[in-house]
């Protein structure tokens, strides 16, 4: 938690002069205003700076959510913090207005790119070679470069495998765009664990049907044909230190 700034010394968090009901309403207003004004999800520790020591923040947020029940937007826990988010049933109206915001990056993804970023989310940190073997076809470096430009993935730690190949991880922006509080909110993660797809080893045995199983669990079918405009697949074996963007 950040140290208090000079102006914070004059900020009355406790509101002891107000009645219990008015104090609660004022705390609700402060929390919602801070979330509304922020362009990124607001962490719990930041919101706790706006209310008194005895305030139960979870109950306060629940009351705000209840009041927003009839509105086209809601408070959602995304990427480690709270933010205003429009309800899914208004997605078509938002797209029609041209105000899709972060959804534009998701809409721009090809089927293969969507599959790759989803696989990275579940298996990170993961190498390009492991992803190619999992999905059942070579994944072009251009796909990773594009996902990085969109801010959905980044470089992870070097793999302990021979040659120390580069690994990939998802970003906080990925969580925001996909509306996830954390990676534990990914759908069907238990099914992937049961399928053995999250228990990877540095040296994996060949599993011919693993790509089909992964598609089945996620409900995504990768493209059979190479994406239009995609660079030819890398014709090599194992990743090396040059496997970087």
TrEMBL record:
Record bears the keyword Cell cycle = yes
Q: Which Pfam families is this protein grouped with?
A: SMC_ScpB (PF04079)
Q: Which domain of life is it from?
A: Bacteria
Keywords in alphabetical order: Cell cycle, Cell division, Chromosome partition, Cytoplasm
**Record InterPro entries:** ScpB_csome_segregation, WH-like_DNA-bd_sf, WH_DNA-bd_sf
Q: What's an example GO BP annotation here?
A: chromosome separation
Q: Output this protein's name.
A: Transcriptional regulator
């Amino acid at each position: 938690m950040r140290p208090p700034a000079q102006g914070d010394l004059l900020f009355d968090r406790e509101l002891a002069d107000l009645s219990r009901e008015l104090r609660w309403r004022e705390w609700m207003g402060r929390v919602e205003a801070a979330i509304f004004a922020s362009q990124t999800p607001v962490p719990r520790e930041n919101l706790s700076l706006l209310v008194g020591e005895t305030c139960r923040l979870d109950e306060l947020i629940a009351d705000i959510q209840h009041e927003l029940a009839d509105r086209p937007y809601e408070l959602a826990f995304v990427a480690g913090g709270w933010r205003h988010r429009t309800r899914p049933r208004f997605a078509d109206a938002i797209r029609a207005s041209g105000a899709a915001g972060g959804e534009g990056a998701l809409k721009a993804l090809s089927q293969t790119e969507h599959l790759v970023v989803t696989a990275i989310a579940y298996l990170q940190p993961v190498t390009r070679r492991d992803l190619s073997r999992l999905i059942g076809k070579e994944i072009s470096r251009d796909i990773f470069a594009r996902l990085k430009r969109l801010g959905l993935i980044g470089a992870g730690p070097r793999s302990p495998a021979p040659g120390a190949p580069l690994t990939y991880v998802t970003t906080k922006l990925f969580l925001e765009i996909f509306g996830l509080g954390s990676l534990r909110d990914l759908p069907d993660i238990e099914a992937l664990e049961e399928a053995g797809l999250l228990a990877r080893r540095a040296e994996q045995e060949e599993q011919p049907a693993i790509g089909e199983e992964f598609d089945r669990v996620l409900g995504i079918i990768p493209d059979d044909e190479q994406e239009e405009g995609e660079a030819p697949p890398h014709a090599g074996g194992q990743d090396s230190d040059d496997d970087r963007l």
